[in-house]
Amino acid sequence: MLQRELTREQAVQAGEQLLVFAEGPIMERGYSYFSDGVVFNTRVEKETLLTSDVQGTQVYHVVLDLEDVQNSTCTCPYSRLCKHIAATFFQMYSVFENPRQYLSRAQQPRRARFSPAMLVPTFRNSNQVTAQEGTAAVQSPLTPSSPVRDWWTFLESWTRNLPSAMETYRASSELMSSYQNVLSVAAGWSTARAQLFTVHAIVFHLLKLQEFVKTNRQSYWFQDLSQTAERLVEQLEGTLFYLDVEELHANHRDLLEETMQIVKKMKKTESTALYWTFAYQLLWWHLLQVPEWIQTEVEDLERLLHHSSATPSEQEIYKLLRAHFYVMAGKDEAAKETWIANSRLTLSFYLPYLKMFARSEDWQRFLTWTDWLQSLIGQADPQNYQLVMAIWQEAMERVGRASECGERLKLFLPSSFHEYSSYLFDQQQFRQWIDLQMSYHVPLTEVLATPFKEVEDRQPSLLFPLYVREINRLIGERNRPAYKEAIKLLKKARAAFSKADQEARWVQFVEQLSTKHNRLRAFQEELRRGNLNL
Fold first, then answer.
1. Confidence of residue 271 (pLDDT cuts 50, 70, 90)
2. To pair with 139 at 20 to 30 A between CA atoms, which of 80, 197, 254, 427?
């Protein structure tokens, strides 16, 4: 049916856009959903909109805009192009082309192109999502006018059996289920109060997670619960992003004052994980920007920092938090002195700040921070690297330095290897390109996958070190199949030496190999069979 309503060109065009704007892992998960057959009710509307239902945690409704995929929507909590949108695309694409071949393209290293959607938090406002899902309201004594202290009393009552459930069943699932279900308490409240209740529900469940980890130190829970903490912090970032802060400050000041008192206590929470720090910083940045409150908190941190009873671990946390207020005051150098010296901080720690600089289009500030964070960007996981580099390229263009981007990719090695390698090759900087392949021990088979012939034709002598390295590696494997491959490479190397008018050098190299490995009988046999005409 789709073949009659859509064209191959529409499918290909949508696919090319997804390669630019969708994250690689998202495309992989979308392919898995498509392969599992959970995409149904697929139909075309208005000639360019493809709609479907996708069975995930629940059934999500997708609208894929074939003309501009960035306008596509899904009812899941993810705010960007999601795996359900990707699954719908694969369902359509499979009618016209091989989806497996497309996935192989999507898995190749590529630079993401900047889009304002990158600066939007990963998850939408949690309270709004819950309302859309139609979750049945939880019975509670809370009313729309209840103060924050009553919220926490209810949350304590609501979770009284949570620790035992977490210990008995899967801890992360029980915690997230408790958090998601309790949001329906605020379903009938005003938007601002409901959003603030969501903020408190997240902070409360982060606290419960921390208490559980402290009580139950089984290592097999560590990764699972760390991912849950990250997810809760992402939910917090999304909720704060959509929060009507002006409405809260204008009409619910009492709730914010109670919130501020709770957040002030967070800095004394015993935790070895940084997610608690992330939550604290997000709350002060987005919600509690009242000068007198900030001044009081800074004074409190200074006092704690210099208190004689503060342990080294407590001082480390106080320093991290104090530096956050330096950034809020625009004193980035002071924050850098504290943070850059801390080896525990990965690029993830700085991402909220980098995104906030970009949202406010403070491009020079963003670039200053990426200069400071070069090594962390170079060691980042692919997803975070792609995000930062897409924004970085936009920032360089905005400040009039787009022409420097290619050469400056060197600063972000090894993460930028594929991009920098492509730049060097495109610029015909072949010597630097070869040096890069050698430095990162790229197998010759991968090097040969590039437009290798151009180097052979223009500067064949540059290839000698690659051939020599690979031939020696194969001989070092000490088996006959490897020796045969080494002989094949020797013949290819002879062609390169010949083009460079250095056949005598090649003959010398082969003779040295033969002498060096004269005790390897199998290698000597393959050398003779190779008929290399020495």
1. low
2. 254
